[in-house]
Design goal:
2 domains, homodimer, 321 residues, Phosphorylase Kinase, domain 1, alpha+beta, Aminoglycoside 3'-phosphotransferase, Chain: A, domain 2, 15% strand
């Protein structure tokens, strides 16, 4: 949870003077989101989220993220829609940081997803993949396999403090993945971070996707591999194949996987687990003094890496063919 | 900023089933408030704040706080109104903590108050003092002068780490205050923590008072002394007499101070400064590992203590008689 930056009255008023939102009725910091500072902004015209982009988000990437949300929203994906100023700008500056206003999405994120939630996520992910088609901008995935050696290098000297043998196990997994990593899979815009806290539900219905700040161009099925990791394991790190079947099955009702994608799924799932293990490990070893965010446990993803390493075929995730 | 407790989907649904609020549309942790966990709750029937009372709030005090908000709201004070369940209960239990739902108040808190804001606060404070009349419950002020020796004892061994000589200066001030502390002043329900972040404005108009979790029975003018400290000093710790005049003047338009209250104001203001210096000092020296709240600077209030020690008469705060 996070609000890293205080916004003064005068600065907020000056910023909002550029928009046609009506008078401000409320402005409250939100205790969610790790990378940026987020505020609930209520105006006469409705509810919005105001985001200040903190240092971990590269300024040059912002037009991609903002543009993607506009592109997807216009194509029927329920995601935050950036609000443009009277000058037509979706990106402004507030409290010495890049800042944007987006529409507020109703819904709650699900702390303990069921197979029905997984089914809805699979459907929404595939629809997002289809809707991303034709988006003009592109952004490479800095956290795909090419970025993992640098993460491992940043963490390996102290990795064994977290679990004995962790550095060696990660290095071995990385070497195996580098040898086996597939090329030539169907690519497109992926969300790359579609964890439960980024998916809103109203009752049983999925009401929105948020937080596109890891979105990038990569193999579409890699996004599905990330979701398998994020949605289909139980708290004890066991894999729930009913959830996997729901997630993959509903994904395929919208976008059928090609044979090479099916074949690649186990290796991509293992890679996705390594990616989240490594970023969590780096965060875990580098908690700054006065940190406002409790780091997530890297060992959860070490267990998932091990699970995927033993998988032979996508049928073991619940694929029904 | 703070959300200390996670609320599961099932627990939230079970809790809300006791209320007539309609379907939930949103539920987000709010990065404000130090003592409790606060959530924005949007339902079909409107917007609410759901509060989980964490360990620093004594459970036995909750009926006083909840009852006071109801009493004040019914008498025209714009403050959160507790929402009762279908069973008629304003206090429930969620995530193993006492929990309450109150109405959401529009408004923003003012980061840099002007004299006009101080005037509105003075008026609202006096109206609250009048509206508190007749409230059936009572609660002693645990953080008045009788509680300060214990705070000093908790901090004094390490106080000089924060500023050389601080322990001795605080002990001397406490001894002087104990000799001079007035008795027999008009008493009533006081807010006791009416800092800028607990007062909402919509434009120039005060739209609400929040956070009654330090409210208690004490000398009414002590509340005014707290507000002089909280609202009328500049960031460099200089006293702004224009703000003092506005605060006291508008207070008196609603509730005129009696002669003994006027006489007591300098000593009460010094005592209020010592009280906040001591609680901040204890917090400063006891930041827990993984703390989510940055402690406030006790030295800001040391400077205010020194200012008040040199004050002879309430005219020096801006009283115009």
């Amino acid at each position: 949870m996070a609000v890293y930056t205080e916004v003064s009255d005068e600065a907020l008023a000056a910023f909002l003077a550029e928009y046609d939102l009506g008078a401000v009725q409320s402005f409250k910091g939100i205790a969610e989101g790790v990378e940026n500072s987020n505020f609930l902004l209520v105006c006469e015209s409705g509810r919005y989220i105001l985001t200040l982009y903190e240092k971990r988000v590269k300024k040059d990437d912002l037009p991609f993220f903002i543009g993607l949300m506009e592109h997807l929203a216009q194509r029927g994906v329920t995601c935050p829609l950036p609000v443009r100023s009277r000058q037509g700008e979706a990106l402004g500056r507030l409290a010495e940081r890049p800042a944007a206003i987006v529409t507020f999405l109703d819904g709650l994120w699900i702390r303990r997803p069921t197979a029905r939630h997984c089914a809805k996520v699979g459907e929404a992910l595939a629809k997002m993949h289809r809707a991303g088609d034709g988006f003009a901008l592109s952004r490479p995935n800095a956290l795909s396999i090419g970025g993992w050696p640098a993460l491992l290098a940043a963490a390996e000297a102290r990795a064994d403090e977290v679990a004995p043998g962790l550095a060696g196990e990660a290095a071995q997994a990385l070497a195996q993945l580098e040898r086996a990593w597939p090329a030539g899979l169907p690519e497109g815009v992926i969300h790359a971070d579609l964890f439960p806290d980024n998916v809103f539900f109203l009752g049983e219905n999925l009401s929105g996707l948020i937080d596109f700040y890891f979105a990038c161009n990569d193999a579409l099925v890699y996004d599905l591999a990330i979701c398998l990791n994020a949605w289909c394991f139980e708290p004890d790190a066991s894999f729930n194949i009913t959830k996997g079947r729901a997630l993959i099955g509903e994904y395929e009702r919208v976008r059928r996987l090609e044979p090479d994608e099916v074949e690649a799924l186990p290796i991509l799932a293992r890679g996705a687990a390594l990616r989240f293990m490594l970023t969590r490990l780096v965060d875990w070893l580098n908690v700054p003094p006065g940190a406002k965010v409790v780091p997530k446990d890297p060992l959860e993803y070490l267990k998932k890496m091990r699970f995927h390493a033993a998988i032979k075929t996508a049928r073991d995730y619940g694929l029904l063919r």
